[in-house]
Each structure stands twice: as structure tokens, then as C-alpha cells.
Amino acid sequence: MRRSTFTRATCFAAVLVSATLAMQSKPAGAEEPQGAFIEVQGAKLWCLDSGGSGDVIVFLHANTGSSETFLTRQFPAFTGQGFRALACDRRSSGKSSPKSVDADGQGSVAGDTVAVLDVLSIDKASVLGVAGGGFAALDLAANYPDRIDKLIVGASNGRIQDKEIQDFRSAIAIPGLRDLPSHAYRELSPTYRGLDGPGVNEWERIETKAHFEAKPQKERTPNTFEKLSTISAKTLVIAGGADLLAPPALMEIWAAHIPDSMLVKMPEVGHAISWEKPEEFNAIVLKFLARP
């Protein structure tokens, strides 16, 4: 367990909280995100691609959401800093074909993402996964290390199979939480729900139209502490202080098994970490991506 890395991350976060991100004008070659279907391994995935010739960052959406989650809150910030931004609806989500298969490398989100990169002739990309997208981001980094530049995981339990994580999740589970009529009660923090009604409504709109009945895809291989220890990419883990599903203490446990990782905490933010405070979230990620 490497607690010293997490201590250094506290200083890293403190600088960002008071900073205002100076956005550049859109770089040459970058356009408004264009949506198109990309056929991979028996599926048609709806993908948003900003284009451009900059370094690529791939956004992997949560189980409650789609590529649209990132369209207004992340794409402008990253394309404004010269990145090519890419996000796809996974199988059974958003506009993609509602077919999900057992993960065998052909139907996993990691496998599909690499297939999309191949179609677009992208050799390497940084990958950012939030919540359920974090499961796939870890899976991708472990199974396809040569395709990953840097790895960012936000507000995710990682779907780690080890008993320590499973016991933690059982201990913090709130009876009846998943039976509530709106996912907003478990995904969005009380502060956000109280202060940003329009934002809550927009999040619920995207979440409601994002899903079919198919079950989420599994990982190519199960996520375990041992598997995390093989990840070679520089990794940033971002935890929300008001996250009911993946609180910072839980994320610290699994993140400590990634050799080159750091953890940053965002106070008063719930499970929808990139949605609730996009400016702060984006600044943290961009600062990390700028580091050697």
C-alpha cells in the first residue's frame, strides 16, 4: 500500500481548487463533435468525435449515462486545450445497438474501445472512465497497456472482486437505495440536488433515455488487486467526498494497488463526479495530463 503517493496528491489538488482554468480558442483541426456509428465486433456503437490532430482522450461513461454525459461538460474544456475528444455509447446504452454479450475480448467495453481506436487509426490514447466506465478503464489499461497513455478513473468501486472491497461495499450499502424512483438520489450529492435543479433535470433526462434492458457488459478479465498491480500507465484516481457508492476510503484501498497512481478528493461531490463540478474536475484532469 503506497500512502505517500496519496499524500502528494493532496497538494496537487489544493493548487487546483483555487485556480481558474484559462481556456484556449479551439485549435486548428478541431471541430464541433460529430456523431457517427462505428461497427465493431458485431455491434454498432454511436461515437462522438471532436476530430483534430491533438493527443486523444477517450471518455467512458457510467452505467447511468451515455456519451452525451460528456458533450457539454468535458468536450469543450479538453478540445479547448488541444485534445481530440472521443466518447462512445457502449453496447446496450444510448444510440448503440442494444446487444450485450459475455466478455471474451470481443464483447467487453475494453475490447470495443480498442476496436474503435483501430477503426479511427488511433494508436494510443489517454482513457478517462467514471463510475461504471471506471471498471472498463481499469480493464483496458491492464489488458491493452500499449494502447494507453494515461489513465483517469473517477468515482468508481472498480468492480473489484477481492473480498476486502466486497466487504466494504456490503458494509456501506443503504437498504432500498437502488429501489428509489430516481437514480439521482444515489448518484447526485445532496448539495448538487439542492442548488442546481436544471442540472439535475438534465442529468435525469440523459440517464432516462440512455438505457435498454440488456445487462451491462462484463470486463474482459475480472478486476482484482493482482490485475491492478500490472497496470503500467500513470494513473489519476478522483474520489467524491459525498459519493454514497464509491467513497474515498473505498477507492483508496484499490487505488493503492496501482503502481504509479495518485488520488485526489473533491469535497461535497457525489457519484456523478464529472457532471456536478465539471470545471474543477476538468482542471484536475488537465493538470494531470500536462505532467510528464
UniProtKB/TrEMBL annotation:
The keyword Disulfide bond does not apply. Keywords: Signal. SUPFAM superfamilies: alpha/beta-Hydrolases (SSF53474). Residues 1-30 form the signal peptide. It holds the Pfam family Abhydrolase_6. The keyword Signal applies. One of its GO terms (molecular function) is serine hydrolase activity. Residues 57-283 form the AB hydrolase-1 domain. InterPro entries: AB_hydrolase_1 (IPR000073), AB_hydrolase_fold (IPR029058). PANTHER family: VALACYCLOVIR HYDROLASE. This is Pimeloyl-ACP methyl ester carboxylesterase. It comes from Paracoccus saliphilus.
